[in-house]
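DATA SHEET
Item: assembly model
Revision: 1
Owner: S.N.
Input lines:
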Amino acid sequence: MIAHEETAGLIDRLPCGFVSFSDDGTVKAVNTTLIEMLGLESEKVVGHHVETILTVGSRIFYQTHLFPLLRMHGHAEEIFIMLRAADGHDEAALLNAVRRQEGEDWLTYCILIRVRERRKFEEALLRAKKEAEAARETLDAHRKELELANAQLEEQALELELSQHQLNEHATELEVLNQVLQERSAELETQRTIAQDANQAKSAFLAAMSHELRTPLNAIGGYVQLIELGIHGAVTPAQAEALARIARSQRHLLRLINEVLNLAKIEAGTVNYEVRPIVLREIVNSVFPMIEPQVHERGLTSEIDVSPELVALADRDKTEQVLLNLLSNAVKFTNAGGCIRIVSGSTSGPPRQVWLQVEDTGVGIRPDKLAQVFDPFVQVDVRADRRAEGTGLGLAISRDLALGMKGQLSVESVLGQGSEFRLTLPAA
Amino acid sequence: MSVSRAHERIVTRNNVRVSGSGTQPMLWAHGFGCDQNMWRYVAPAFEVDHKVILFDYVGSGRSDLRSYDAERYSTLEGYAEDILDICHALDLRDVIFVGHSVSGMIGVLAANREPELFDRLVLLGPSPRYVNDLPDYQGGFERPDLEGLLQMMDSNYIGWANFLAPVIVKNADRPELAEELEASFCSTDPIVARRFAEATFFADNRADAAKVTVPSLILQCADDSIAPQSVGEHLHETMKGSTYRLLDVTGHCPQLSHPSATIDAIREYLSRSSSAPKE
C-alpha cells in the first residue's frame, strides 16, 4: 500500500478508482472505490496481473497500445477502457495514468472514472453524426442521380428536336415529290389525250382511204366477171385460169379493206352496240349452221353443250360475228378426224358473267405466240403448207368487239393438242 | 549504395532510418499498435556491428499516409510487401529480420516470397493465428474478444481524432501540439489502425509458417496473454530450422519491459549461428 498514512485514506476514498502496477503488470495497490465499483475482493486483485480487472479486448489493447505508450511517453490521458466486474458485466471507464520510478522499480499510477452516463451521451452523438453523414451521402447520391437524369433528359430533348427537324425535312421532300407526281400525272393525261386523238385521226384516215381503195377494186371485179362471161369474146382455158386468179386476189383485197375499215370503225368508237339480253343457246343455234358444211367437208366431228339458261347482256349481231370468227378459225386449223366443241359456263363474280368457249383438237398455238394472236395482221400458222387465207384481222376485231361489250376474249392452247377460245360477256 | 528516385520514395514513404557502422543489415519491424519507436531500448545495442534499419509500415508512425492503399493493407501480404520494398530500395542482402508480434508473421510471408534476401528471422512473441481453431488449436481468443478490441480502438480514435483534425491544421504555428497528438498514440490514422487490427487478428498463417526455409529464432515470453506459450511451442514444431528461446518475462513487449534480457537473447542467438554455413 501507499507509504503516507494521511494520504492513504484520502486516496482510498477518492471519487474515482485507483490502481497502481509495475511494468510486468503486477498490481501493487487498489483503492476501495475501484473494488466497490467492480464488486471485487482486494486480495483477488493486489499481487495479480492488472489484466484481471480488464475485459479481454482491453487486455489486448493494454498490451499493444497502452503499455507501450506508458513505457515510452511516461503518461496517458483520457484513455477509454472497458473494465470487467466480478459478476461478469462490463464497466466503461476513462483512464489517466503516469509512470514513475519508485526506488528500483517503475510504477504506473492510474485513476479510472466511470463514464457510463457520459458514454451514452457520446454514443448518441456519434450515432447522430454517423446518421447525418449517411443522410448527407444519400442526398449527395440522389443529387448525382438527379443531375444524371437531368443530363439524360436534356439529351433526349435534343434528340427530339433533331427528329422534329428531320420530320419537317421529310414533309418538305414529300411535298416536292407530290408536286412532281401531279405534274407527271398531268403530262400523262395530256399524252393520253394526244394518243387517243392520234388513234382517232388514224382511223378516220383509214376509213377515208378504204373508200378510195374500194372503188377501183370493184371495177376490177366487175370487168373480170364480164370477160369470164365471154362478153368480150371466147375465153381460152389458160385465160380462164388467169382470170380466176385475178378474181381471187380482188376478193382478198376487198375483204382486207372491209375488215380494216371495220377495225378502224371499232377503234374510232363509231360502232353502235345494241345491248340487250340474249340467250347464248340461240346465238349458237343461228351461227353453227353457217359452218356446218365446212365441218363435214373437212371430215371433222362436232359437239354442242351449251346451257339454255345462260343469258348475256350484249349486242346480238356482234356476238354472232365473234362466234362465227372463232368457229371459222377452229375449222381452219383442225385437221381431218378432229373435233370442234362449243361449251358454256358462268361465273358468280362480282361481276356476274357468262361465257361461250370454242374448243378444237387442232394444231394449237406456240406458247411464245399466244400473246400475239389478238394483234392485228398477225396470223399464227404452224402448218407446213401455209394456205394463207384470211387477213389476220379476225381475232383483233373479235377482241375489240368483246371489249366493246364490256366482255373479254381469251385463249388457252397446247401446241399439237388444240386450242380453247373463250368469249366472256356480262350476265343479264 | 545508389541513391535512386525509387530509393528516396520508399525511404520517405516508410520513414526509413538507417544507422550503425556494421555491414550486415538488421531490419526491425514493429508490431500492431505502435511504430519504430518501440525498438529504442534494444536496436541501438546492435549499431556497433550491424547496419540498423528502422521503419514504419504505411499507415503507422510517421509513414506517408497518402501511400495508403486500403486493399493492399487489408491483408498481411500488403505489409510483407513493405518489407520487400525496403530491402530492394536499400539493396539489402543477408538481412537479419527482427519482427515483434504480428511482424513475426509478416516476416515469414516476406521470407517465403524472397528467401534469398534473408539470413535469419528473429520473431518476438509471434502467433500464426489469434483466433481459436478448436479442438486442436488454441490461438487464445474468440471473435467477440477481437470485436471488443476494435470497439476500444474506435472509442479511442474516432471519437476525438476526427474532431481534432481541423485543430491540428489550424495550429501549424504550434507544431508541438501536433507532435503531442502524434505521440499520444503510435498509429495516427484510426481507420488504418482498425484495418491493421482486422488484418492481424483475423489472419491464419499456420501454413505459411510451415513453409519457412530461413533459420528462425522464436522468442517466447513466459506469461504473454497475446501470444501464449502453447502458440510459441506449436510454431516451433511447424517451423523447421527454428530455435525456441523462453524469456522469463510477463507481458507482450519484452523490448519495452525487459530490454536487456531481449538484447541478450538476440545477441546470443546471432553469435551462435553466425559461423554456421547456410543451408
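QC remark: The radius of gyration of chain A is 64 Å.
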